Amino acid sequence: KQEVTQIPAALSVPEGENLVLNCSFTDSAIYNLQWFRQDPGKGLTSLLLIQSSQREQTSGRLNASLDKSSGRSTLYIAASQPGDSATYLCAAEWDGSEKLVFGKGTKLTVNP
Amino acid sequence: DTAVSQTPKYLVTQMGNDKSIKCEQNLGHDTMYWYKQDSKKFLKIMFSYNNKELIINETVPNRFSPKSPDKAHLNLHINSLELGDSAVYFCASSHRDAGNTIYFGEGSWLTVV
Questions:
Q1: B50, B56, B99 member nearest A49 (Cβ)
Q2: What are A41-55's pLDDT values in tens digits?
């Protein structure tokens, strides 16, 4: 069964800290992996998309890595800010199925 | 301009009623989806359509019927609403040739009382 797991469920850090969010997935034959951000009462915003042939993607203070052999992806956030507070969701797609399987998310709180 | 828009944003209705949620995307994408986020915030796919054809139907009760009149629209009709249908329903769209980055609407909060 293809599943995505995110640990921890919640994380609280002081402003300015660099942090890593973790995502693990079963079945290394993924097609791609995406990281999303969800703010309370809002939809999901795609942050980074990593194709299966890629190792990492970067956007501003965000860097996402993909290690298919170990079934892991990480989202690195540099110099965290209170505005980064949100729930971060990881989702994987297998075999071009066009079906994203989501983890349950990590709720991040960055304290000023 | 909103890329993926869905209406209504909030809907409170009684058990047994029939309701629809509409979705439109102006991104020129060829694939549209409905996802459901339950009370535990777990997000799961329900349906996907590619060029108006049903591609994915994830063991959803047949009280849920998606309809895609054209590539830019995917509506969700729900018959005989039950308490357990209370959730947030997200519409989304993507384009295969663009690496399949998926864009979500802001969600429709459905409460069945």
A1: B99
A2: 888 999 999 998 999
